[in-house]
Specification:
The chain crosses the membrane at residues 6-26, 65-85, 97-124. Keywords: Membrane, Transmembrane, Transmembrane helix. The mean pLDDT is 82. Helix 1 packs parallel to helix 5 (98-138). The chain is elongated. It is mostly helical. It has one domain (2-194). Strands 1-2 form a two-stranded antiparallel sheet. It is built from seven helices and two strands; from the N terminus they run ααααααββα. Helices cover 79% and strands 2% of the residues.
Length: 195
C-alpha cells in the first residue's frame, strides 16, 4: 500500500512539477530574448500553453494525491513523534526503531515534496513579473490596454489541493502544525498520568 502511493508521488506529482519547472526555463529564455511583437506573442503563447498543462496536471493530483499528502503524511508524523517521545521506554528497542524511521521519512517527505511543489508557484511568479516588466518596457507607447489584458490573462501557476494551493510557506506551516499537535498530545498524556 505504501509503495503503491509512493509511485504516484514520485512519478506523477514530482515528475509533473519538474516538467513544469523545465517549461519555466523556456519562458525565462524567451523573456530574456524578447525584442519585438512576434517574440511577445510567442512568449505569451508559451505561457498560456503551460497554463493549460498546469490545469490538466492539477486535475488528477488535486483530488487524489495531494490531499493524502496534506492530511495523511502529517498524521503519520504526529503519531510517530508522539510515540518516539512518550513511549521510548515501553517499547522494546528493535521494534521501537521503526517509529523514528517512519517519522524521519514523513518529515523528509513533507519538506522535500512540498518544497518542490511550492517551486512552481515561486518560479512562475518570478517569470510572470519578468514578463510584465519586459513587455511594459518594450511597448511603452503602444496600446497599453491590450498589453494589460494579455498580462492579466496570464495568472500565476500553482499546484492545487481542493481550493487551496501550495506556496513557499506550506512546508513550514505543515511542520509547525505537526510539532504543535505532538506537543499537545504529549501534554494531554502528561496530565492524564498525574490524575
Amino acid at each position: 500500500m505504501v509503495l503503491g502511493c509512493t509511485v504516484y508521488i514520485f512519478y506523477l506529482l514530482c515528475a509533473g512539477v519538474i516538467c513544469i519547472l523545465f517549461y519555466f526555463r523556456i519562458i525565462q529564455r524567451s523573456v530574456s530574448t524578447m525584442k519585438n511583437e512576434s517574440d511577445k506573442e510567442k512568449c505569451i503563447h508559451v505561457y498560456r500553453s503551460i497554463q493549460i498543462l498546469e490545469k490538466s496536471f492539477n486535475s488528477y493530483p488535486m483530488n487524489k494525491i495531494v490531499p493524502v499528502m496534506v492530511f495523511g503524511v502529517p498524521s503519520v508524523e504526529i503519531i510517530t513523534l508522539f510515540v518516539s517521545i512518550n513511549f521510548y521506554h515501553e517499547i522494546a528497542l528493535p521494534g521501537f526503531l521503526v517509529f523514528p524511521l517512519i517519522g524521519l521519512n514523513a518529515f523528509l517527505n513533507n519538506i522535500c515534496v512540498f518544497t518542490l511543489a511550492s517551486m512552481v508557484h515561486n518560479a512562475l511568479e518570478k517569470a510572470l513579473l519578468a514578463l510584465r516588466k519586459k513587455m511594459t518596457n518594450l511597448h511603452r507607447g503602444c496600446n497599453r490596454s491590450v498589453i494589460h489584458r494579455q498580462l492579466k490573462a496570464c495568472s500565476v501557476l500553482k499546484v492545487k489541493f481542493g481550493s487551496n494551493y501550495i506556496d513557499r510557506g506550506t512546508p513550514l506551516v505543515i511542520q509547525n502544525f505537526c510539532i504543535n499537535q505532538t506537543m499537545s498530545l504529549t501534554l494531554v498524556k502528561a496530565n492524564t498520568m498525574k490524575i
